[in-house]
Design goal:
By secondary structure, the protein is an alpha/beta fold. The chain has a single domain, classed as Isochorismatase-like (Rossmann fold, 3-Layer(aba) Sandwich), CATH 3.40.50.850. Helices cover 31% and strands 20% of the residues. The protein contains 9 helices and 10 strands. The protein has helices at 36-39, 44-47, 59-71, 92-95, 149-156, 168-181, 198-213, 221-228, 233-236, and strands at residues 11-13, 20-22, 27-32, 75-81, 107-108, 111-112, 134-138, 160-166, 185-194, 217-219. The relative contact order is 0.21. It binds tricarbonodiimidic diamide.
Length: 245
């Protein structure tokens, strides 16, 4: 049988394990949990004993990716991990896990740890959402769990995701796996996802692209930016919606 012709507006990114093709109007950039609580001192990440400075490297390349994606007129979605102030959506299994210096809901230097509405829970200034960009508040690690993300993607007609954010082996991996099982094609930008553990960063990325792309594709952000530079915003016409929580 002859191969199906590619849509005229298909963009191709050199990636592992092979070229990743996407149609910009059907593709969203997903920024996962780029919150002060994970990236800056005094938040949830540090309370778990992590060196949060390891995540700072993600911000400069992700800023470029965010700017280029916005300029191309594509859909941009942000997520934040966090809980209601009364912790009614935080299972005891999550609250009591490990021996953190501060638990979820405790008062830290950036407000209550991982609580919606607190300064530490919000997205870092460099990557702040613009009005009209959707923000998904999620209680778990995966962005599809207990959120309306799937419904939202279906309304806008999104079939592919460019995945970025933190941390690679926790919320990024969980979300990519959830997305993969729901039929979305995911390209993970290797330098725009970060881990507190260099060995997990490497293994996490390898796991996604292994076995012919068992969960998706992996590429450096420059490969995505190069591919995007040919896209005209007028040809994309991505839908945007109101900010959600
Ligand atoms: N601890 C850790 O690596 N990550 C999280 O708890 N959440 C996210 O990855 N966002």
């Amino acid at each position: 049988m002859p191969a199906e012709p590619l849509p005229a507006d298909q963009v191709t990114v050199p990636a592992d394990p092979g070229p990743f093709g996407f149609v910009p109007s059907r593709t969203a950039l997903l920024l996962i949990d780029m919150q002060r609580d994970f990236v800056e001192p005094g938040g949830f990440g540090e309370s778990l004993g992590n060196d949060v400075s390891l995540l700072a490297a993600v911000i400069p390349p992700l800023r470029k990716v965010l700017a280029a994606t916005r300029a191309a007129g594509m859909t941009v979605l942000h997520t934040r991990e966090g809980h209601r102030g009364d912790l009614s959506d935080c299972p005891p299994a999550k609250l009591n896990r490990g021996t953190p210096t501060m638990r979820i809901g405790d008062l830290g230097p950036k407000g209550r740890i991982l609580i919606r509405g607190e300064y530490g829970h919000d997205i870092v200034d460099e990557l702040a959402p613009l009005p009209g960009e959707v923000v998904i508040d999620k209680p778990g690690k995966g962005a599809f769990y207990a959120t309306d993300l799937q419904e939202l993607l279906e309304i806008v007609g999104i079939t592919s995701l460019i995945v970025t954010g933190v941390t690679t082996e926790v919320c990024v991996h969980t979300t990519v796996r959830e997305a993969n099982d729901r039929g979305y094609e995911c390209l993970v930008l290797a330098d725009c996802v970060g881990s507190y553990f260099p060995e997990f960063q490497q293994a996490g990325l390898a796991m996604i692209a292994a076995q012919g792309g068992i969960f998706g594709w992996v590429a450096p952000s420059v490969a995505y930016l190069d591919a995007l530079s040919a896209v005209s915003p007028a040809a994309v016409g991505a839908a945007t919606g109101p900010e959600r929580s």
